[in-house]
Amino acid sequence: MGEIVYKTIIRSGLTLLILWFLKNHFDEKYFWIVSLLAIFFFVINPAYMSYKRFLEINKNIESGTLCSLCKHFDKSAILCIKYDKHPTDSYIPCGGKDWEPK
After folding, report:
1. In the predicted model, what is the mean pLDDT of residues 47-61?
2. What is the Cα–Cα distance from 31 to 75, expressed in whole angstroms?
3. Phi-psi bin for 78: left (phi > 0), alpha (psi -120 to 50), beta?
């Protein structure tokens, strides 16, 4: 999840920097349209697609592991809050020792 945020911040900075350099090449009324389209296609849409891919990849962990039923599990980040580690299909951060029901 942090990778998605990091890449979105980098893409935002690069897009704004490129738009700043291109602002003199467009008339003002077209510049806003070009800016909004660039921000949508180079920042918002890739972030949304990455988030959808993240949810699809982690669907099994969210519904089929012991961690998903624990009170230390953060569903939005697929993270064990107690150990600050990401569980997978074959790895449980606590090994089941610190599991507590929600």
Report:
1. 91
2. 40
3. left
Pair 34, 41: CB distance under 8 Å: no
Question: What long-range pairs does 84-87 form, CB within 8 A, spacing at least 24?
Answer: 87/61
Task: Please tell me the total number of residues recorded for the chain in this structure.
Answer: 102
Domain assignments of the chain as residue spans, ordered by start? 2-57, 65-102
pTM listed for this prediction? 0.77
Measured in degrees and rounded to the nearest 5, phi and psi for residue 85 equal -135, 155
Contact predicate 15/39, CB 8 Å = yes
pLDDT at 46 over 90: yes
